[in-house]
Amino acid sequence: MAIQRLRASGMIRLSELGAIAECLAAIGAMEQLSQLIEAKLLTPREEDLDQQFSTWHRAPKEGEPPFQFVMGSPKGETGRFDRWETQVDVRLSAAFFVATSSVTYGMWCLMAAKPDHAKRWGKDARLPVTHVSWFEASLYVRWLDHWLRKLLPSVIPAGHRVALPTEAQREFFARAGTVTRFWPGDDEQQLEEVAWLFRNSDLRLHPVGSRMANGWGIRDVHGNLREWCRDWFQEELRGETDPLGPKRGLARVLRGGSYWDYAEYSRSAQRYRNSPDDANGDAGFRLVLSVPEPVLGARQVPGSGSPPHAMA
After folding, report:
1. Do strands 283-284 and 226-232 pair parallel, antiparallel, or not at all (unpaired)?
2. Which residue, among 197, 177, 156, 162, has the nearest Cα to 59 in the 3D structure?
3. Quick one: CA torsion of 63, 64, 67, 72, rounded to 10 degrees?
4. CA distances, 86 to each of 65, 154, 159, 238 (Å)
5. Which of 79, 84, 242, 272 has its CA at 20 to 30 Å from residue 264's CA atom?
6. Sign of CA dihedral 246, 236, 222, 288
7. Tens digits of per-residue pLDDT, 17-74?
8. Buried b / exposed e along 288-302 (16+ C-beta atoms within 10 A)
């Protein structure tokens, strides 16, 4: 009945649609969620999906040490916000796959229009999409997971799903095994070679993937756009297996830096927060293929099996 009302209701904001999708998923109404996606969002062509979502990178890289790292920053690190970055030991129970860069405007337009982005940045399909709320990013995740399973099921490894990264996953793949302020090291001059920031961006977005990749093949983890994470924000980091923030809250987590951030605000441990219905010009999102939360931490999942275009 709810889906029928939505079909008849005409225009509805994508952020509102995303909130409805979250409610349907929370109560396990997956058939209704699928109906919502097919009724209110664009239907992609198989060849477009295959072209746009072709490269994923395993985290950790094949052959790298296991899924443990120190999250947060050491005391005295330049730019550190003490209350939010107290170091904790984190263990991730499963390998996962990370998209090379943020979701682009071209990728977004397979699902829906984004006039706020186009008005500010134009329609260059290579730019990361902006003006996306957390609810919209989550809606995109559910839209993509639905259509990949329907049109290209071999892309998703068994037991995985398309998701926003958890905050722990986001710091894990940004660091790529490093313990310095940025993955290239502690020197801010080095950072300009791998990230678009205030000093080198001309205060504008740049095409994704146009800076150097880290050791795991992942790009743009420190600049261009901040990126939404799955977690609700809490001030203290949680040290445990597969941490996922509180069950509810007022703000969602963002990680990374943007084209108008200074280097000290783009560190691997840098944390941001924002209301999930806010859509700003310096925030976007990135996709992962991950084991769902109820499975994480329950057993060791080796992360075997790869998407057809994944790179170790």
Report:
1. parallel
2. 177
3. -170
4. 23, 40, 33, 9
5. 242
6. negative
7. 999 999 999 999 999 999 999 999 999 999 999 877 768 999 998 877 678 999 999 9
8. bbbbeeeebbeeebe
Question: Sheet holding 283-284: strands in order across?
Answer: 271-274, 252-255, 226-232, 283-284
Q: Which amino acid is at 85?
A: E
d(CA 50, CA 196) in angstroms, rounded, equals 28
Identity at 159, one-letter amino acid code: G
Q: 187: which DSSP letter?
A: -
- Cα–Cα distance, 57 to 187 (Å, whole number): 26
Sheet (strand 288-290) strand order: 56-59, 96-99, 288-290, 161-163
Q: Using one digit for the tens of pLDDT, what is the confidence trace for 130-165? A: 999 999 999 999 999 999 999 999 888 888 999 999
Residue identified by tokens 């796959």 is 97
Angle at 102 between CA 245 and CA 133, to 5 degrees: 55
Structure tokens at 35: 């109906």
* CA–CA–CA angle 76, 240, 264 (5° rounding): 30
Rounded-to-integer distance, Cα 239 and Cα 220, Å? 26
Q: pLDDT tens across 70-119, in order?
A: 999 999 999 999 999 999 999 998 899 999 999 999 999 999 999 999 99
Domains annotated for the chain, with CATH where assigned, are 56-142+161-290 (3.90.1580.10)
Bridge partners (DSSP) of residue 241 are 91
Task: Say which residues have a Cβ less than 8 Å from residue 13's Cβ, sequence separation at least 6.
Answer: none
